């Protein structure tokens, strides 16, 4: 029999002790992790198999997280890439997130009774500012108007202003416009329009939204971004309109914003589209992006759409407020894209501060050859 020298015995025993120690530490860490997810640890330290808690699917996350969404990245018919969709939707997500944080309405599914009156939101209006626009803003605006004269953007035929059934009575049309705006956040115009067609085919009135089951409504809205949450909002809004507004919609920005799921952008556009009242500029992600690219929002730009609205309204003539939203939205959908703007085909390529088209340097004249 081979005799193992004492020194090797010591090394062997030492390595075994270290191995056992490492295993013990891993077992303790595993037990702690098991306990945190509802596992049961036996006396000998072995984790028993138990029914783990299912992960909760979060529909709205932090202000700047743009990808924990339900069908938000809906591809358009222009083949925009995922990065473009993400950038385009980020600002709308901020608004949606802020709406969630400010609402006090209980959405507990275990409750049999729904809250029909929204609590007052804490409003933090941007501080009024005075912005000096670039001296050439009229030239830039006229060039954009020229480029938009063909009206071939999605917003021109499928925007929220185009979704109401004109054969219905005025207050039903106003309700349909409001619903369309509620669906538009985080959703392409094409997808919103298709969802509105499905809703109208079933019957889109306050009464029909009171009668429909929330699950069925959600199915009709799919694949609208946040369709489950928006189905809840629409149901609650219908209850509020029946109780407080006789099936009509509110006629002021503040009252519109008191409805669940309605933010500033939706409220200002609704005042224009539903009530034909020019009370403010509807600023969405396109308007926010383009206004900052053109230096229309002052030195340093603005960080969110509401600040952009205040900046624009400080200098832009009021008779342009109604026109500017659709003009810039369509321009943003076709030319001034969030990723890879088509500056080469833009009439403002030589005067836009954000243009990626550099003026070609004049070639230096060649020295005449000497005889």
TrEMBL record:
Residues 78-104 have a biased composition (Basic and acidic residues). The keyword Cell division does not apply. Its cofactor is [4Fe-4S] cluster. Its EC number is 3.2.2.-, 4.2.99.18. It catalyses: 2'-deoxyribonucleotide-(2'-deoxyribose 5'-phosphate)-2'-deoxyribonucleotide-DNA = a 3'-end 2'-deoxyribonucleotide-(2,3-dehydro-2,3-deoxyribose 5'-phosphate)-DNA + a 5'-end 5'-phospho-2'-deoxyribonucleoside-DNA + H(+). GO terms for molecular function: 4 iron, 4 sulfur cluster binding; class I DNA-(apurinic or apyrimidinic site) endonuclease activity; DNA binding; metal ion binding; oxidized pyrimidine nucleobase lesion DNA N-glycosylase activity. Residues 183-334 form the HhH-GPD domain. GO terms for cellular component: mitochondrion; nucleus. Residues 73-133 are annotated as: Disordered. It comes from the Eukaryota. It holds the Pfam family HHH. GO terms for biological process: base-excision repair, AP site formation; nucleotide-excision repair. SUPFAM superfamilies: DNA-glycosylase. Keywords: 4Fe-4S, DNA damage, DNA repair, Endonuclease, Glycosidase, Hydrolase, Iron, Iron-sulfur, Lyase, Metal-binding, Mitochondrion, Nuclease, Nucleus, Transit peptide. It is found in: Nucleus; Mitochondrion. Its main location: nucleus. InterPro entries: DNA_glycosylase, Endonuclease3_FeS-loop_motif, HhH-GPD_domain, HhH_base_excis_C, HhH_motif, NTH1. PANTHER family: ENDONUCLEASE III-LIKE PROTEIN 1. Bifunctional DNA N-glycosylase with associated apurinic/apyrimidinic (AP) lyase function that catalyzes the first step in base excision repair (BER), the primary repair pathway for the repair of oxidative DNA damage. The DNA N-glycosylase activity releases the damaged DNA base from DNA by cleaving the N-glycosidic bond, leaving an AP site. The AP lyase activity cleaves the phosphodiester bond 3' to the AP site by a beta-elimination. Primarily recognizes and repairs oxidative base damage of pyrimidines. HAMAP family: Endonuclease_III_Nth. Belongs to the Nth/MutY family. This is Endonuclease III homolog. The gene is NTH1.
